[in-house]
């Protein structure tokens, strides 16, 4: 069995539209912090001088959005109401959605913007695969090579609502991409909207989630390392954040043989 990490990191040194703040307390600072917290909240006096080298444990504090790094979007991310009922938060999603057989579709030749159902159908034929219900579909756009730069957020390939509906009609409930978003880049969508006045070009893939329940995995990585289009599983359990519209995930492809 081979495990392939298909996650991108949370890294405060990389470019993010919403910057990541990562504060690290050293083991010595952690000892002083622990001593202060024990006294304040538990009424226990304990001096760091009692510890070897006056060190306890390091401590990391992060300030970031749930959409930083590889993450799973929950239905509640797409809106407050849905035609099927109340959209669920990330902590309410069934775990069996996130450990499934998977297929990776090659979209690396697609241009910046959004492709539709016809392009997904073509990619499925090239992969020689028809998804079974609850299979996870991964979209390899090649965008991850720009991760950590501003270009990653402005130049990539997304999919439109026809593509999402096609996959959901097959029983897929989790769609992943190595791009910043499952939709086209912001600038691309807004330019098309201003030209046409058609609101349907604005975040169509996300807004399908107001009609039909499904999850996205965004900001995957290393999809080019998958040895074949299918015949592997993906585990991408989201962090259980109560009431959240998304949760970080350590996505891993599991390849037998």
UniProtKB/TrEMBL annotation:
One Pfam family per UniProt: Cyclase
Protein's GO biological process: L-tryptophan catabolic process to kynurenine
InterPro entries found in the cross-reference section: KFase/CYL, KFase_sf
GO molecular function, one term: arylformamidase activity
Protein name as catalogued: Cyclase family protein
């Amino acid at each position: 069995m081979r495990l392939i990490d298909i996650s991108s990191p949370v890294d405060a040194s990389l470019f993010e539209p919403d910057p990541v703040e990562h504060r690290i307390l050293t083991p010595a600072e952690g000892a002083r912090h622990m001593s202060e917290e024990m006294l304040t909240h538990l009424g226990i006096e304990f001096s760091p001088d009692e510890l070897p080298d006056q060190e306890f444990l390091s401590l990391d504090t992060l300030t970031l959005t749930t959409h930083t790094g590889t993450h799973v979007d929950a239905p509640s991310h797409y809106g407050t109401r849905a035609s099927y009922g109340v959209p669920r938060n990330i902590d309410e999603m069934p775990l069996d959605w996130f450990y499934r057989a998977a297929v990776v579709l090659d979209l690396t030749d697609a241009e910046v913007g959004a492709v539709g159902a016809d392009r997904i159908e073509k990619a499925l034929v090239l992969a020689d695969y028809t998804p079974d219900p609850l299979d996870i579909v991964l979209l390899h756009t090649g965008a991850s090579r720009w991760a950590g730069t501003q270009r990653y957020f402005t130049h990539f390939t997304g999919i439109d609502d026809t593509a999402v509906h096609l996959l959901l009609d097959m029983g897929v409930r989790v769609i992943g991409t190595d791009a910043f978003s499952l939709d086209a880049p912001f600038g691309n969508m807004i330019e098309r909207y201003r030209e046409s006045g058609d609101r349907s070009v604005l975040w169509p893939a996300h807004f399908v989630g107001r009609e039909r329940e499904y999850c996205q995995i965004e900001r995957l990585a290393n999809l080019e390392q998958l040895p074949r289009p299918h015949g592997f599983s993906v585990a991408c359990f989201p962090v259980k954040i109560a009431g959240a519209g998304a949760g970080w995930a350590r996505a891993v492809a599991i390849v037998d043989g």
